[in-house]
From TrEMBL:
Residues 247-320 form the Xylanolytic transcriptional activator regulatory domain. InterPro entries: AtrR-like (IPR050987), XnlR_reg_dom (IPR007219). It holds the Pfam family Fungal_trans. It comes from the Eukaryota. The keyword Nucleus applies. Keywords: Nucleus. SMART domains: Fungal_trans. This is Xylanolytic transcriptional activator regulatory domain-containing protein. GO terms for biological process: DNA-templated transcription. One of its GO terms (molecular function) is DNA-binding transcription factor activity.
Amino acid sequence: MENRIERLERAITISGLDTKQNKLQASIKSGDIKSQIGLSDKLSILMINEKGDSSYIGSSSGYSLFSFQGLQWIANKTKWADLELLLSQMTGHYRADWHHGNWCSFQGDIWNPAPAGDREPIPARNFAIKYVNIYFDVFNAVYPLYNRSIFDEHLHRQYSGNPPESIAWYASLNVVIAIGILSERMHCIKPNTVGDTGPSYELSWKYFRNATSCFTQLLFTDVSLMAVAALTGMAVVLQTTSSPHSAYILTSTAVRLSHSLGLDQPCDDFRISPAEIEQRLNVFWIVYMMDKGICLRYGRPSTINDEDIAVDLPRWESDIDRCRSGRGKFYAFPSLTRLALLESKVHSELYSARSRSKSDEEMLICIGTLDAELQDWKAALPIEVRPDHDIQCHDSSFLSVILLHFSYYNCLSAIHRVPLHLGLEIMDSNIRNCSLNPRLNYSAVICTHTARAVIDMLDFFSHDASPERANLIWISTHYLFCAFLVLFGNILEHPGDPDAFTDLNRLNLVTKLMSPPSATGHLSGYIRTLKTFEELANIAAAFLTCS
């Protein structure tokens, strides 16, 4: 990109269109661009282990302390010289070592077709109806992948002696039952509630395995709206495991299939029923939400170009249905969709290759605008579920509200990390010379507050050592580890902070609560990650003791 910029500048000069003012602006902007390109490269991570396996994590991920520049900063602050050990721990992860959380009874490749004799039989009608109902009551209210009337028509046929022959239906039924079992247990995660003795996680895994055995056919044989919904449901489930790579690949695949079906385009003139039009819209926006969330969390380009979207957002209905208890059911889907649009803008405007063409002043104006839009989004939420307020909602909505808070804090942190990376001196000089969002002057404080808020949310499920709590831990792993790194950096930067030792306790809480899942399966890759964070907590403790 630097060479491209220089060639462009030379071409303008040779053409005779250059003026003194243009030269001055180009000179200033070119310097800004080069510094931003270099900074972005230094804050990204490319991990390559001795087997040659590699994984790229971009600068929006929140893992910049594990970049070479970040490790150098740690070494300079702490006089800790053993960078090589930490680097070997970080690059020693073999994807094959990762296992699927609590679902440890299955050891094979889940994407291979399974012989009929190895599949879990479709359950009895009453069992299926129970967990389909739970799925629609708990999960589908947040991620409305299926239209209830269309799904019920297929379900009735399934037990009428003339079952549908569609592979997409078979995969969908199994995904819905698997999620229904998970939802029954995970929605009881709220403090002071007790889950019942329902089916085991192993059974949920078996139904999920039925669905994944159809993977190849869903891609190439039975390409349909229901196939996209099934793949998206699989990706959602895989976010509750220790393997984010699988969810990343599945989401990208679902996006490509949605494009092939035109889900991002209007279809009012194609004689499609209103129910199917609504489902097409919902499935597209759920895939969009997942794609943009993963994009921001792992610093990788999105599969969806926002400029190609020609459909409306989901209808914004009443967010809270009041119950007799006073705790309302919150329908998070419209709010999550609009947050995903903001996540997309954050990555595009602050972290993409195109964003590096902005001057520092333009970047700071953009940061201020995005922060204001995010605060407007937050203010539009009912106060019962608004971040930085006590959660007061129905138990069935609790998990979706927790995930909404995690996503909000992640987006806020991604916005306010950028001025810190640019440097406080640059930021201060720009604030004196142009009208900027005053919150930019407190970016470091905002990032620290956000990290504390994320870790403090562990109180919602630290009381319980059940498998469902462990699966919620997997969903929150990225947010907790990123928050850990922010507080770790703050301790090294400000050891005299009155909250430094409290923050150290937060670091230890993260490593303590992240430990139980590692005992439930063959998670050598995850265990190495956990050991890295335990080492960082030890470094922070030693640093505070010596300060």
